Every structure is written in structure tokens, then in C-alpha cells.
Amino acid sequence: MAAGITNVLLVEDTPSLSRVYAEYLKKDRYTVRIVETGAEALTVVSDGAPRIVLLDLQLPDMHGMEVLKRIAADGLPCAVVVITAHGSVNLAVEAMRYGAYDFLVKPFSADRLAITVRNAVERLRLAEIVDTFQTDIARTRFHGFIGSSLSMQAVYRIIDSAASSRATVFVTGESGTGKEVCAEAIHRQSPRREQPFVAINCGAIPKDLMESEIFGHVKGSFTGAVADREGAATRADGGTLFLDEICELEANLQTKLLRFIQTGTLMRVGGNRLEKVDLRIICATNRDPLREVEEGRFREDLYYRLHVIPVHLPPLREREDDVLEIGGHLLKEFAREESKAFVRFAPDVEQMLRLYHWPGNVRQLQNVIRNIVVLHDGDTVTAAMLPPPLGQSGVPVLHHAAAPASLHVAPGKRAIKPLWEVEKDAIEEAIAACDGNIPRAAALLGISASTIYRKRLSWQAEGNL
């Protein structure tokens, strides 16, 4: 729903389409105003009424990009979604450069439009959180984090607010998004900063040793227990205990952890006396914890004990230009370590870094930059230096030569197309069938979204898109 942000300006000069789009949006209770020219659009947005602007690029009096540039230059508080029937990757990148939130290529479905607008509303909500609580310049660094995107500003804000509390924090996010960095940031921002920060990866320790790792053991309690040993909870006394991959804990240990959280006391494996500890628990998982609860793998009562302050770390692909900030920092750091001269990325490399899906998130970016620095040298990273799957060496390069004129097919037979054309047709048909959703089209085709982006860039460079 559009709760709290209901005004949408639709800039579309085709009445039949504007009526269809307006009907799509009214289902979600948005108030839609329609204008047909760029001049009318600029007048309306200058008044400050619309929060979402759906902007067609082909307008009768000016190009829609001029409207977008004016909105960006004036710093108007609205999210712009560009709509065009003449979409291209370069045009999309240019629109994003001038502050467009998203880019839709006609035709698109009601669901596609609704989801895009809802996401734009959420972006505005995050921006307002940042504006309300943080009046200084957006932070580009925060403890171990690098990035100035709106989604990360919201994360920094939650960490600021939660750090002084004793409440348990539950961090979620894909692998490689920085969950341990988040836990350390909370600890370092908190009054416990001078006390220990102890981290345990619950998925990396054998299940039969996990209880001992958390709570400790006494001598002789099991084979190999040759001396008393403190567990992580005792070592973290006064400080913070970070339990990474918490959903990996087996059911019996979940019960003991719940009792420990409720009482603040623990008993070592093989021991017979309770020990009191004072610590703060931060836990994390790359799974959906609620699904783990629903499917019986994680205790519901433990979930609600832990899930007091939730922090979700966005994947790198949803962090705007943070990939360039992080990549630039890593490039200079690794170049210094390896005594190399790198200081920047070439413009086409920056675009490829932006467009890549980054399934391994920041951890994958670190590996890519390290590979470049170790194997190459120079002051600028070029496309030829990128390793697979970003670099062209990871994807067969097709030279789109025209079919020889001497080739003929028998009468009644289907004309033979060059292989690249067959591939291009299949990809574009899949994208159209998925209403422009390239990651979904890539999944159905059995390839990565980055492959589609690279191929479309290649076709466009050769004038075939």
C-alpha cells in the first residue's frame, strides 16, 4: 500500500496509456495526477506535491531526460521512475546518474509497475529516516563499513540507536554482506566497547563440540577434555557475544541457549555449578529465520528472545554506487600492499561493476579486486583486466559478422540466422515475457543476469540493440 505517500505524477502524452497506468496505480490507493508535457510536469513538481514521478522520455515539447535533470538539479524530494519504449542500457545508466530510481521499458504489467512504485516509496521512507535523524553530511565510513547509499545510512542509524541498549540484535543478510562487521560496529559504538568482543560461527564448529565452545567444559567431561576450559560466553563477560549463523544450532543447544538468555547463568559441560555472566548477544544468519521457525528447525520462543532489534544488511547490488566506493578503497589498499600503481577504474569498468549482480557481495568484490591487483599493473583498471565472470575471458566473444551472401537455403526451409541473432532473440523474448525483469529472465534461461547485461552492452556497442 501507499500509506503516507499517496501523490503520484504521471507524465505521459498517450491518453490511452495514461488511463491504463492510472488504473494500475489506483488499486494501491495512490492519488494520480496526469500531465502530457514536460513543461506541465516541471510546474507540478516545483509545487512540491508529487512524491513519485512516472516520467515518459518521449514528450511532445521536450525530452523527458531534461525534466529528470531539472528535478535532480533542484533537489526536489521525489522519486523518479523513467518510462520509455526506447530502452537501452546506456540510457538507463544515464537516467540513474541523474537520480532516477528505476527504469521501465514498455510494455510492462500492472504488477511490475506496482512493485516498482512501492519500492520507490520505501526508498523515500529511508531517505526521510536519514534526514530526520542525521542532519550532517551522509556518512561514507562507519566503523568497518564503507558506503553512502540510503540503505546503508539507515543501517548506520539503527546501529547508532541500538548500540547503547542491552537488547539483543538479530542481523540478517546474504553471505558476504558484512554481518560480523555490523556486530563489531554495534559493540564498538556501545558502552561495552572496552570489554571483549567474542565471535563464534555456529556453522563452522562440529555439533558435538558446539556446547563446549559456547559454555566451556570441565576436565574429563569428554574424551580430549584434558583441562578446564572457558567457553565463549565466559570470555565475553562484560562485553558482547556474537553468534554467527545462529540457525545452524541443533535443537538441544537451542534450548540451552534460551535458558542462558533468560537466566543469565550457564553451566559448563560436565560441571555442576552455575556461573553468572553479564553480556550482550548479537546473532546473525543468512537464512530467513521466520521460515526456519515455520519449518520447525528453529525454536519460536528463542527466535522472539533474539529478534528484539532486527538489522537487515542489503546486498551489494541494492546499494547504489557503494560498489564503486568499496572497490576504490580496496583497489588503493591492495595496490599499496602489492606495491602496484592502481588508483582508479576506467569508466566502462565502473559501469560493469555497477551492472554486475554480485552474488557473493562484498567478499566477492574483494576477491575480484585482489585478482586484478596481483595479476596486472598500471594506474587504471581496464575491462581487459577483469577476471571471470566479469571479464570477457569468462564469456565467449561472438563477432557479429553478417552471413555470407553466397549462403542459400532450400526453398520452403526456414532462413538460417547467425548464432548471435538466435541468442539475442531468445534473450529479448525472455526479458519481454518477464516484463523487463532481467534477473528473472536470466534464471529461466539458466544463465546469470550479468551475462545478459554484458551481452546487451556488446550488442549495443555494435549497433545491434
Automatic annotation (TrEMBL):
<keyword id="KW-0804">Transcription</keyword>
<dbReference type="InterPro" id="IPR027417">
    <property type="entry name" value="P-loop_NTPase"/>
</dbReference>
<feature type="domain" description="Response regulatory">
    <location>
        <begin position="7"/>
        <end position="121"/>
    </location>
</feature>
<dbReference type="InterPro" id="IPR011006">
    <property type="entry name" value="CheY-like_superfamily"/>
</dbReference>
<keyword id="KW-0547">Nucleotide-binding</keyword>
<dbReference type="InterPro" id="IPR003593">
    <property type="entry name" value="AAA+_ATPase"/>
</dbReference>
<keyword id="KW-0010">Activator</keyword>
<dbReference type="InterPro" id="IPR002078">
    <property type="entry name" value="Sigma_54_int"/>
</dbReference>
<dbReference type="InterPro" id="IPR009057">
    <property type="entry name" value="Homeodomain-like_sf"/>
</dbReference>
<dbReference type="Pfam" id="PF00072">
    <property type="entry name" value="Response_reg"/>
</dbReference>
<dbReference type="InterPro" id="IPR025943">
    <property type="entry name" value="Sigma_54_int_dom_ATP-bd_2"/>
</dbReference>
<keyword id="KW-0902">Two-component regulatory system</keyword>
<dbReference type="InterPro" id="IPR058031">
    <property type="entry name" value="AAA_lid_NorR"/>
</dbReference>
<dbReference type="InterPro" id="IPR002197">
    <property type="entry name" value="HTH_Fis"/>
</dbReference>
<keyword id="KW-0238">DNA-binding</keyword>
<protein>
    <submittedName>
        <fullName>Sigma-54-dependent Fis family transcriptional regulator</fullName>
    </submittedName>
</protein>
<keyword id="KW-0805">Transcription regulation</keyword>
<dbReference type="Pfam" id="PF02954">
    <property type="entry name" value="HTH_8"/>
</dbReference>
<keyword id="KW-0597">Phosphoprotein</keyword>
<dbReference type="InterPro" id="IPR001789">
    <property type="entry name" value="Sig_transdc_resp-reg_receiver"/>
</dbReference>
<feature type="modified residue" description="4-aspartylphosphate">
    <location>
        <position position="56"/>
    </location>
</feature>
<feature type="domain" description="Sigma-54 factor interaction">
    <location>
        <begin position="145"/>
        <end position="374"/>
    </location>
</feature>
<keyword id="KW-0067">ATP-binding</keyword>
<dbReference type="Pfam" id="PF25601">
    <property type="entry name" value="AAA_lid_14"/>
</dbReference>
<dbReference type="Pfam" id="PF00158">
    <property type="entry name" value="Sigma54_activat"/>
</dbReference>
<dbReference type="InterPro" id="IPR025944">
    <property type="entry name" value="Sigma_54_int_dom_CS"/>
</dbReference>
